Amino acid sequence: MTDYDYDIKKDLYNILGCLPNSSSEEIKQAYHRKILESHPDKNENSHQNIKIFHDVKAAWEILGNTDRRRKYDAKFKQIQLEAEGELIYANLLPNDLEETEDIDTLSYQCRCGNSYIVQKTDLEQTNCVLHIPCQECTFVIAVET
């Protein structure tokens, strides 16, 4: 399965019965629980049970792999933000940002010509995504810490 074979609009965490901030071990436990609950050999082979079983397997293939999970999280968050009307210009990591004259801030150039300004103290948070608006236009950058 490639990273694009699965319907990105599906909430894989919900399929496994866990949350986006769940640890890898919690996701693994949720997968084992759900796969046993929906396995065709343990349940009647209804179309719905088979579909759930395949959804659980697909969710595990993505969320059980650190790199695929990170990519899924970014894409899923982008879809959620677009649904809320927020336009993401770029998904970045802290090292993608540039130093500014102000030692307390970093920046990233927007396509409108202006800049996104990020406070270095905001980057101290871990395992979150910061949404930084452009100072001029309606675009936002997402910085994964």
UniProtKB/TrEMBL annotation:
<dbReference type="GO" id="GO:0008198">
    <property type="term" value="F:ferrous iron binding"/>
</dbReference>
<protein>
    <submittedName>
        <fullName>DnaJ homolog subfamily C member 24-like</fullName>
    </submittedName>
</protein>
<dbReference type="InterPro" id="IPR001623">
    <property type="entry name" value="DnaJ_domain"/>
</dbReference>
<feature type="domain" description="DPH-type MB">
    <location>
        <begin position="88"/>
        <end position="145"/>
    </location>
</feature>
<keyword id="KW-0479">Metal-binding</keyword>
<keyword id="KW-0862">Zinc</keyword>
<dbReference type="GO" id="GO:0001671">
    <property type="term" value="F:ATPase activator activity"/>
</dbReference>
<dbReference type="InterPro" id="IPR036671">
    <property type="entry name" value="DPH_MB_sf"/>
</dbReference>
<comment type="similarity">
    <text>Belongs to the DPH4 family.</text>
</comment>
<dbReference type="InterPro" id="IPR036869">
    <property type="entry name" value="J_dom_sf"/>
</dbReference>
<dbReference type="InterPro" id="IPR018253">
    <property type="entry name" value="DnaJ_domain_CS"/>
</dbReference>
<keyword id="KW-0408">Iron</keyword>
<dbReference type="Pfam" id="PF05207">
    <property type="entry name" value="Zn_ribbon_CSL"/>
</dbReference>
<feature type="domain" description="J">
    <location>
        <begin position="11"/>
        <end position="76"/>
    </location>
</feature>
<dbReference type="InterPro" id="IPR007872">
    <property type="entry name" value="DPH_MB_dom"/>
</dbReference>
<dbReference type="Pfam" id="PF00226">
    <property type="entry name" value="DnaJ"/>
</dbReference>
